[in-house]
# Entry
Amino acid sequence: MPSRKFADGEVVMGRWPGSVLYYEVQVTSYDDVAHLYTVKYKDGTELALKESDIRSQSSFKHRKSQSSSSSPSRRSSSRSRSRSRSPGRPARGRRRSASQSREHKDDKKKAIIQETSLALPVLVLFKPSENNTKRYNGEPETTEKNDTSCIILEQKLKPDLEVKRVLEQYSLRSRKDDKKKEEIFSEKKTFVAVKPIEKVSTKTKELEFGGRIGTFMMMFLLPATVLYLLLMCKQDDPSLLNFPPLPALESFWEWKAFGIFVLWFLLQAVFYMLPIGKVVEGLPLSNGRRLQYRINGFYAFILTAAAVGVLLYLEFELHYLYDHFMQFAVSAAAFSLALSIYLYVRSLKAPEEELAPGGNSGYFIYDFFIGHELNPRIGSFDLKYFCELRPGLIGWVVINLAMLLAEMKIHNLSVPSLSMILVNSFQLLYVVDALWNEEAVLTTMDITHDGFGFMLAFGDLVWVPFVYSLQAFYLVGHPTTITWPIAAAITVLNCVGYYIFRSANSQKNNFRRNPADPKLANLKFIPTATGKGLLVTGWWGFVRHPNYLGDIIMALAWSLPCGFNHILPYFYVIYFVCLLVHREARDEHHCKQKYGLAWERYCQRVPYRIFPYIY
# Structure
């Protein structure tokens, strides 16, 4: 069994994952099984590093240059030349051979190369575009984008580099020797070459959602909640105390509904694979690789709208969705369960670096629920990214349209009710906005952290289309009349929420994409150890999650058209508040681990999480 090289409590230099930067760290523990050191950075961040990514502090001390401080073209010597002799000839008895002269020049070049190779890492460590430990270890904060430290170091290096260029230009050695020297120099430069670092995937230690027991219970609680809500909406009195009778089990399943759902899923998959729309790269993975994604969700929505229009023109009864809504929900749940089983089985053969950081606990139930593999793909077809926005989100709009047509048919209306129009319009705007800004989903926790398991599969294919459409489903059986002034007030509320939601997300996404954009020059931020900045002005200086605030305001606006007779249509806004508060707690935990002291400083600058002056 290999012995460890560094002891607990020893102060060493640790390489930051994904970069070539070394920082002073303290060894806290060592894993004998994984052969990983747990180190603690000055800002409090703790990471697991391989022994090859740790160096002793003595290895970073610069050796003194062997070259003379005098002119490189002239050797300093205690023996002076005779004035009567030519400067190009050595003194009598001290004439050197040509080979000795070349060796002397080679020695000088080696010394210059060594100086340059030692200076280059210093230049990298203080490059302003990378992270600087001084910025987050208690020293004064700076948000200046132009730093002169890099320029000063470049000026210090110029004399040595100029001497090297002159020596190479007038060298009498053969080209073969030059090639060997270039190889030596390139080997020395590999110390600062940007090389992706393999990140060893470790087991998930901190379990969420109540761990194994909690996730096991949720796999039964989530489908039961969907069935309960749909049964309640079918009742004449959907009060909480009026529990609906359980229908016969055979009424929950219909093969025709299952076939239509599978056909819908395949249709959206065909739209996803169409070679239209731009291709973008996602965030870097643990191994430094970036996956490519085709952004064509809005085009898929347009094609879906055209297909639905053709069906209506052919007098297809779209309100069939309303009549068999329960069967469609059960079909979607069965499909999501089958998909989850497939995802877990295939994840068992996935490489270690492709596993999700949050779903690699080693416990079957937990990993099955959270998702074991981060980005499961069939060729270039990304299953998680496809399900995130396509079948469920677009299906939500189609279900709302079916409810609108069902209301008109059941109540013999020539036009939909004002309440139904508001619900459909508000939610249509939300879906279109998500598809139009599809690229923004690549930076969300669902894509970057969570694996693709039962949680996301059920959420994308069942929860989103069948629970988010609850208001429209409720209005079919429980029509609500509202006046135009009330409708105008609800519309204003929804617009305010949408403005906060969209402007906050756009501000964050633009800053992540290009922090040096002149349009963002007025924004201030706190630099972090990862090289990213935490915004402390704009919406993100108002509360820590302004997009969540806008989401909750919109959710309230979607429920208000249903009136106040029953609390059932307000389930969505109540659930959404609980969801976002829980997600905010997850974000806080991950950000504190990721950004360390910088996140604590950010929390001091922005004390409120979602609701200003409340929470």
Observations:
- Confidence is low (pLDDT under 50) at residues 62-105, 108-201.
- The two ends are 52 Å apart (CA to CA).
